[in-house]
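New to this. Comment on this protein:
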Amino acid sequence: MSHNFSIIGKNIPRQDGKAKVMGAAQFADDLKLPGMLYGKILRSPVPHARIKNIDTSKAEKLLGVKLVITGEDTPKINFGNWRLVPESMDEYPLAIDKVRFIGDEVAAVAAIDKDIAEEAISLIEVEYEELPAIYSVDDARAEGAIKIHDNVENNTSLSRTIHYGDVDKAFAEADLVLEDTFEVHAVSHAYMEPCSCLAKTDLDGRITIWTSTQTPYYVQVLLAQTLGMRENDIRVIKPFVGGGFGGKMELRKWEFCAAFMSKLTGKPVKFTLTRDEELMAGRRRHAMKMHSKIAFRKDGTILGKEFTSFLDGGAYNSMGPTAAFLCGNFGGFLYRFPSYKYNGFHVYTNKPPAGAMRGFGAPQALFVTETQMNMAAEQLGIDPIDLRLKNAMEAGDEIPGVTKIHSCGFKECLEKVREATEWDKKRKQYSEEKSNKGIGIGCYSFISGGAFNWFNTQYPFTAVEVRVFDDGTAHLLTMASDIGQGCDTVLRQILAEELGIKVEDIRLTAADTAVTPQADLGTWGSRVTFMAGNAIINACSKIKEQLFKVLSLKLNANVIHDMECKNGRVYLKNRPDKGVEFKEAVRLAQKYNRGEPLVAYGSYTPRGHGLVTPAYSFGAQVAEVTIDKETGIVKVDKVITAHDCGTPINPIAVEGQLEGSIQMGLGYATSEQFVMKDGKTLNTTFLDYKVPTALDMPENEHYTVEVYDPYGPYGAKEAGEGLVSPTAPAIADAISCAANVRFKDLPITAEKVLKALKKL
């Protein structure tokens, strides 16, 4: 698809690249302030217990310790991420009555250096009354199970339902019904930068906190609430962030401790987690047990689906309410389900809490959907791609009461991977040979930002401010957060395209709640380009309106709607010679307005787009594998992807997201897992937690199927999260093709493969 763009669609280098490669980028743990204290958290060594007594006296007497706090010292205000559902707010900054997992935060110390803080933690004595612990959703929901939270029956904190059509009729009329149980595991975000924050209290009592976060506004709101302060008495600044993937989008307890302890001591206080703490107690992807029943006609037409998921939420709700709903949303997606029934249950266990993670419910749900599609294709004698083409969603399709599809290139993606991989030839060859090679397929769809607001604020979903100057430059202020995905560059591209200036002409100030517009829900759900991009276009339209008005007076013509900004100029579209340089147009506008600065506020809030999102991306992915049948080791040789992300704003950035998604999907499918014993995580280093390295990465090819979305900025849709979902089912299908063994649980380790092969 051809466009007359100057900057959109071009490979623009990352604007933060130079600072990062030269070591100039400052992350939260790099920050230091005079008189700064170092914080450390005492964590529970037991999975479930009542706190009988905490003795901090020895720690307080240690030379260099400035403050020790427990839950009893705090305002005792609980918090959570669903302010719209107060009963879901189930955490305190420090445990008050009970601990509910190994790693639960019990007390905190602030000292003059790290070693003293570490020693002080070891001197705190806690008397626990241990309680029975629960480690599975089945045990948690069993009759007579002990309550992890006293007010929650069956340890099920909430349920979510989606239901339309007649599912019973679908199963009664079906020629083939598949009914299967799937289990997927918890994994870590494994971001490079452990969480860190630094808080400072001003003389007037206001708090500034620099923190490694994806959601500055969330932190501001929840920290103010938990401290019992006004929202604008808290300032949150996001420095450079070394990855988040959903693991840094909540108020974290060390952020509270840093702010609260700074307020009490009058000194800056910094907390930085260790990798051991991150892997032992950090948020993780939801493990799920899922039951799926799906009905087909013999020609492959889907008649209906019934889907139930049990989310292992660990000790607290965290982002579980959203994950429970989104799992059901994605479970009814990609294909036309005339009838669909979903029930999702968020269940407490005595394990570390699960939260948001890249894909947020989609990897689990789509592993189920895609595996059953491949199973059905096999039983019906239909090629897996043909089965998908028969049932694939198209633009105009609607899920009753949930959403409507405005753009969809799913079928084109399927046809592209078929062609690019020589699918028909290889699938037949590998299936018949049953040697050691296989080829398999997995598909996905994902949201372009959530059309829901957890905080029910009066603010729009996203807002920006654009200022332009008579030297030809512009200043973009936004709370949208770049956490390594490159959105600071993409947002500059959109602004530059709109005003016809260069990317390097734009100064960007981001993610500072005291400076940038007080409206942005953060970096999650692949929302930044879509939401902030539309807000920038809105602001630029107001800037251009002022420029065009003044220029029309200069040209003595009423031609406002026939002007454009391009290549550093403002001119008549049909007479490019009739115009002025951009900086001259700004000067004229300021003169006309008696020196008033040329500033515009832009916002975007999706309306009328259903419960979930304004737009969905789509894609298909094929994996080729080789199995060593003596060891069970699966080598992923190649991954080929075709994806519909709308108009790519920055193709090289899209490519980077694709490659990162494959790496994450590869680990989810084959190697990453927590080794747990009695609620304790045993593998708390990257030596033992097996993240795929560069040496494990397969060769990959990708193809962009460009389908313009009517609501996306320049037709763009998401490209950051959806691509993490198809890799696991594609690899699983390739293994089945090669070895005739079908897996319905993850990860598919060499041990599992070898065990399955021995049963053949």
Remarks:
- The chain is about 30% helix and 25% strand.
